[in-house]
Specification:
It holds the Pfam family Globin. Belongs to the globin family. InterPro entries: Globin (IPR000971), Globin-like_sf (IPR009050), Globin/Proto (IPR012292), Globin_lamprey/hagfish (IPR013314). It is an enzyme of class 1 (oxidoreductase). There is one protein chain. The chain has about 150 residues and is mostly helical. The chain has a single domain, classed as Globins (Globin-like, Orthogonal Bundle). It is about 75% helix and about 0% strand. The chain is built from seven helices and no strands. α1 crosses α7, α4 runs antiparallel to α5 and α5 crosses α7. The chain is globular and about 45 Å long. It starts with 7 loop residues before the first helix and ends with a helix.
């Protein structure tokens, strides 16, 4: 009884797409975050130590931005490894969602923003097929995170 709507073939091609961007997890994770902070400056308010940073260059050099970029990519990687096992997938998503909803109080719309930026970067670096293979995965992740938020009474 899988809660996932991905076929085995879709899981395989999504993993192939993800591997391409995950090889450089820290650099690509940093690129994604810097773009988010630049294009959606309100997202910086959640990170007290990023608030004073205005230039993209400054953000790119920041150990804290780089560290968080890597952390985001590691979390997604854990989800990607469990796309064919909904119990294990939810075992990653649920605590992550709960923490962001209750402790960090992050607006859930930011998950969609970050997923869309990941898809943009995939397309720029590896083409439209790569992006298309991963799109369903980002929808799964965002849907499940939103469900966790609802359960948390967001």
């Amino acid at each position: 009884s899988s809660t996932m709507s991905l076929s085995e073939a879709e899981v395989q091609s999504a993993r192939g797409a993800w591997e391409k961007i995950y090889v450089d997890a820290e650099d690509n994770g940093t690129t994604v975050l810097v773009r988010m902070f630049t294009e959606h400056p309100d997202t910086k308010s959640y990170f007290t130590h990023f608030k004073g940073m205005d230039s993209a260059e400054e953000m790119k050099q920041s150990d804290q931005v780089r560290g968080h970029g890597k952390k985001v990519f590691s979390a997604i990687n854990d989800m990607v490894q469990h796309l064919d096992n909904s119990e294990a997938f939810l075992g990653v998503v649920n605590p992550l969602g709960k923490k962001h909803a209750t402790q960090l109080k992050i607006d859930p719309k930011n998950f969609r923003i970050i997923c869309d930026i990941i898809l943009q970067v995939m397309e720029e670096k590896f083409g439209g097929d790569c992006k298309a293979s991963f799109e369903k995965v980002t929808n799964e992740i965002c849907t499940h995170l939103n469900n966790v938020y609802k359960e948390a009474g967001w």
